[in-house]
Amino acid sequence: MTQIQRIKSSVGKGKHQHSSVIQFFRDLDPGGKSKGETEREEIDLSRPDNQNEKPDLPASDEVSHNISETDLVSGKWKVKQFMKKLGKKPNSKNMDLNNCALNETDLTELSGLLPFLPELEEINLSWNDFIGGTLKPLTLQLHHVSKLKSLRLNNCRMTAEDIASLGEALEIIPFLEELDLSWNSNIGGKLSLLTKKIQKGSKIKILKVIDCNLAAKDGESLAQILNVIHHLKVLDLSINQKIGCSLKSIAQELKNVSGLEELHLHMCGVKKDGLQSLGTAFQYLLELRKLDLSCNKEIGRGFEDSAAHLASLKDLEVLDLHQCCITEEDLAVLTQVIPLLSSLQELNLSSNKNIGMSSDHLLSRLRFLPKLNSVIISNCSLQKASFASLAEAALHLPDLEILDLSWNKCVGGNLKLLLEALKLATEIRVLILSSCNLAAGDLALLALLMRTGHLAKLQKLDLSYNDTVCDEGWATFYQDLAELKELSELDVSLRPSSCRDCGMWFGKLLTALREMPAFTDLGMQRWVFSGPQQKQLEYFNQDSTRNVRFDY
C-alpha cells in the first residue's frame, strides 16, 4: 500500500508539465482529422527522431512524471525500436505483443517504456509462456498508463506472485474494462489474491478466466466480487470443472450484475442443483444475450425446475446446450420454453441423443423462432419423423445461414425432405452433412439445387465421411459444382478407417474449381490419386492463378 501511495504521489506531481512535453505525447498520438483513425494512432517508423527538435506547444496535461524533453523524445524512439525488433507497428493506444516469444528481458524493457505511452488503452501479452513469474516489474509501472482499458494475459504461465502483483496494480488502473487471464493453470486456488483487491465501483465489463484450474474456493471469490463489478457484461468461466461446486454461490450474486450480456459456463461441472440455482438468477438477467451451458454432462433433469425462468430471457440470441445429456423430462419443458425465446438467433443442441428420439418434437416448434440463423443438431440420433419435423420447421426460417445435421444417419436417402426448405433458405452459407450416410440420390438433389441457383451464397459445404456415395453420385455432384461462385471450402474426405481410388470424376472437380473464384480449401483425405490424376493436380497448382489448399 505504501508503494501505491508513492505512485499516486508521483502521478500528482506529474500534472504540471512544460507544455512542449505534453505536445510530445500529442506527436506520439496525432489528432489530425485528415487521416484515418489507424493512421493517427500509428507511430512513424520511417526515420529516427531528431533529439534536438522541439515539439510544438500542446493542450493536454496527462504526462505521468517530470521527464525532460530530451528523455521524452529519446523514449519515443525507444518505443519504436522495441516494437520494430518484435516485428510490430507501434501504436500509442494499443500494445499488441500476442505470441511474440517474450522473455524476462523483454518484459523489463517494456516496463521501462510505459512512461512514454500515457495514452495506452490496450495491452495484450497473451501466449508468451516465458514471462511467467516476471510480471511484477511491469505491474509496478502500470500507473504510467492509467487510461488502460484492456489487459490480456492469456497463457502466460502466471505464478502466485504475478497474480498478487496484478491485484495490487488494479487500484492504479481505475479505467480497466477488460481483464483476460485465461489458460493460466496456476491461478487455480489463488484467485482471491486478485479478486480481494477489486474495489467497489470497478469499471470491469469483461472478465475471462477460461481453463485456469479454478477450485471451488475460487468460485466463492468470484461470487464475492459480483457485489462490486456492477458494470460486468461478459463472464467466461469455461473449462473449469471444479467451479460447478460453487455455482450456487455465484448464481445467488448474479442479481448484482443485471446488465450481464454473456454467461459462459462451458464444461464447468454444472450439475442439476447448480442449474436450478442458475435458473433462479435468470429472472434478474433480462439483458442476457448469450448463454453457454454446453458439455456439462451431469446437468440432465435440471431443466425441469429451471427452464421456466429461461423463458424470461427475451433478449437471448445464442443458446448452447450441446452435450448436456438432456433427458426426455428436460425436453418436455424445453419444448414449451425455447419457442418463447423470440430473439434467438443461434441454437446448438448437438450430442443430445434424446432430441432425435423424442415423440414430442422440440424441432417442430423451431418454426416459432423466425430470427434463427444457426441451427446445429449434430449427432442427435434423428429419426425420419424428427428429421421431417425439422425440415418442416425450416420452411419458416428465412434467415437460416448455418445448418449442421452431421452424424445423423437418417439424413441419408431422406435429404429430399429438406429440399423445399433449402430452396427457401436464400441466405444459407454453411451446410454440414458429414457422416450422414448420404446416397447418390442425395448428391443429385444437391446438384439440382446448385443448378437452379438455390445455394448461391453457400461458402462452406461439408460432405465428409459419406463413404456410401458411389462414383456416379460424385460425378453428378461435381458436374454442377461450379455454380457455387461463393464457395470457399469443400470437404469430401473419407472415414479414417477407409481409403478409395478417385474416380473419373476428378477431372470434373478440377474443371469446376477453375471457375470458382472464392474457393480456397478442399478436403480429400484418404482418396488415392492415380499417376495421371497426380499430374492433373500438379498442373492445376501450377496453372491456377489462385492458391487452393488440397488436404489429402
Model description:
The protein has about 550 residues and is α/β, with parallel strands linked by helices. It has helices at about 1-15, 20-30, 35-40, 70-85, 105-115, 135-140, 160-170, 190-195, 215-225, 245-255, 270-280, 305-310, 330-335, 355, 385-395, 420-425, 440-450, 470-480, 505-515, 530-545, and strands spanning about 95, 120-125, 150, 180, 205-210, 235, 260-265, 290, 320, 345-350, 375, 400-405, 430, 460, 490, 500, 520-525, 525-530, 550. It has 20 helices and 19 strands. The strands form two sheets. It has a 17-stranded parallel beta sheet, with no helix packed on it. A two-stranded parallel ribbon has the order 16-18. The longest helix is centred in the N-terminal third of the chain and has 17 residues, at about 70-85. It comes from Crocodylus porosus (Saltwater crocodile). This is Leucine rich repeat containing 31. InterPro entries: Leu-rich_rpt, LRC31, LRR_dom_sf.
Which spans have pLDDT < 50 for at least 5 consecutive residues? 1-65
Count of helical regions:
20
**Mean of pLDDT:** 88
User: Radius of gyration over alpha carbons?
Assistant: 28 Å
Structural class by sheet pairing and helices = alpha/beta
Helix content: 25-40%
**Between the first and last Cα atoms, what is the distance in angstroms?**
61 Å
Question: Which of globular, elongated, flat, extended, rod-shaped describes the shape?
Answer: globular
The largest sheet, given as strand count, sense and whether it forms a barrel, is: 17 strands, parallel
Strand fraction: 5-15%
Count of extended strands: 19
